[in-house]
Design goal:
The chain has 137 residues and is mostly helical. It contains 6 helices and no strands. Helix 1 runs antiparallel to helix 6, helix 2 packs across helix 5 and helix 4 packs across helix 6. The longest helix is centred in the last third of the chain and has 24 residues. The termini are close together. 37% of the residues are buried.
């Protein structure tokens, strides 16, 4: 990832945090999964953990809801930031992540205000870590 894009990525990620608290009609986790995530998580494309695969999701679930969701939101491995969808709000994304984690046995709930605050903090940390790593290369 180019260093020059990291400030933009951080601003974009945080804009999703702010916008999500103002949205009236958010997509459900299942709707996010069916409309976006299914493209990769149904068949495991590019190493994506398949929906319902407890073995593949186990280590990810153990990372914790805020950490996993923030890392995926910013982009991780072959997964693009925001699942490749600029119209997706962080809260909707978090609902989709929780839905998939529940499908693999987790007890994650849809995000509340407290979790949204934690997600914003984790997004900032992840973006900073990526910026530092990109600066070192």
């Amino acid at each position: 990832m180019s260093v020059k894009f990291l400030p933009f990525l951080t601003a974009l990620a945080l804009a999703g945090v702010c916008a999500s608290s103002q949205a009236a009609d958010l997509r459900t986790g299942e709707a996010v999964y069916q409309g976006i995530c299914v493209a990769c998580h149904a068949d495991g494309r590019d190493g994506a953990p398949r929906f319902g695969d407890r073995k593949a999701w186990g280590p990810l679930i153990r990372e914790g809801q805020a950490v996993l969701t923030a890392h995926a939101w910013v982009g991780v491995r072959k997964m693009p930031a925001k699942g490749g969808r600029d119209d997706l709000l962080l809260e909707e994304f978090a609902r989709g992540a929780a839905y998939m984690a529940r499908g693999a046995g987790a007890t994650w709930q849809d995000p509340d205000a407290k979790l949204m605050t934690r997600l914003a903090d984790e997004v900032r940390k992840r973006a900073a870590a990526l910026a530092k790593k990109a600066g070192a290369t």
